[in-house]
Amino acid sequence: MSLLAFDWLLFAEKLILIAIIVFASLGIALYTTFAERKVAAVLQDRPGPNRAGPLGLFQPFADGLKLIMKEEIIPNSSNKILFILGPGLAMTAALMTCAVIPWSSRVEFFGRSIELQIADINIGILYIFGVVSLGVYGIMIGGWASNNKFSLMAALRGASQAISYELALGLSLIAVLMLSGSLSLKSIVEEQMQPGNYWNIVYQPLGFLIYFICTLAECNRTPFDLPEAENELNFGYHQEYSSMKLGFYLFSEYINMIMSSAVMACLFFGGYDIPFLDESSLSTNLAAGLGFLALFAKIIFFIFLFMWIRWTIPRFRYDQLMNLGWKNMIPLALFNMLLTGALILWKAGV
């Protein structure tokens, strides 16, 4: 492709979209920490953070400033390069997931049609799996480079847990892909928006349940938060970290939770589809704005569900966690996949 044929406007649009999504993700992750503390306070019948600003709304900025101002400590016995690389890799992998998520339909500005998706690749689901698997390296590198046996034990737990539940997670999605016939997230969303079609949660309730449980394990959320079991491992794989390197690990977990909620909404709940509303009857920009609000509302619901479970259910023992993954989730996912295939063949009259 020649330099003159390159679409510089499209390149600028994508850069602006990337900047908006990255900074919005960081801001939402910042206030998700505040929301988690408020949800915990409501469930435990106490006020929660209420000192910094009106109703405690400035508490996330106070926490962030505290992390930034804290002293950077790198243990003498650690591998310093990998010690710094670990949290950076975890944060980068968490943010890369947003590249294939369709945040809404297209908008029109100054005569140009702009897709609210960074990259609509036809292997979007495989891309997400590849990026998610990179996050495990951030955990393992951080735990090993700390040269602390408790950090290493927590990192090994985290890697084993992620590998175990990724299998059931992938198998649960095969049934959805069999129904939609595409690996593109945008195509899966548009398939659910077609007249006469329903959201995939109607066709795949068992697949959604398996996917949701495995997502809890992938995000290290209760009851699968064994890599950060404070009362067993002194703080988890980031025990030796301080200041913003610790902040990167903590923020990456919340960003993973946000992106997992977005993927869940796209795969099973129609993404930016608004139920009982014909988007084609609206203007392009209005439909895109309402679609984004619909997707955002679904993401908030799932985030609340993550928090509700955390402050309600105790964590598993590690042997229970592994037994659930290998002896229950994987067989159930295989059964769901075979049942879906049989129903597709029966419907086709084969």
What structural category do the secondary elements indicate? mainly alpha
What share of residues are in beta strands? under 5%
**Can you list the strand order of the major beta sheet?**
1-2
Shape: globular
Query: What is the N-to-C succession of helices and strands?
Result: HHHEEHHHHHHHHH
Rg of Cα set: 21 Å
Question: How would you characterize the largest beta sheet?
Answer: 2 strands, antiparallel
Total count of domains: 1
Number of strands: 2
Unreliable segments of 5+ consecutive residues? none
Please, what is the average pLDDT?
86
| Percentage of residues in helical conformation | 55-70%
The count of helical stretches stands at 12
Distance between the termini: 47 Å
Structural notes for this entry:
The protein has one domain. Helices cover 67% and strands 2% of the residues. It is built from 12 helices and 2 strands, in the order αααββααααααααα. Helix 5 runs parallel beside helix 12.
Topology:
Elements: H1 8-43, H2 59-69, H3 80-96, E1 107-109, E2 112-114, H4 124-145, H5 149-180, H6 185-193, H7 200-203, H8 205-218, H9 230-233, H10 243-268, H11 284-310, H12 318-348
Antiparallel strand pairs: 1-2
Helix pairs in contact: 1-2, 1-10, 1-11, 2-10, 3-4, 3-10, 4-5, 5-8, 5-12, 8-10, 8-12, 10-11
Give a concise summary.
The chain is mainly alpha-helical and 350 residues long.
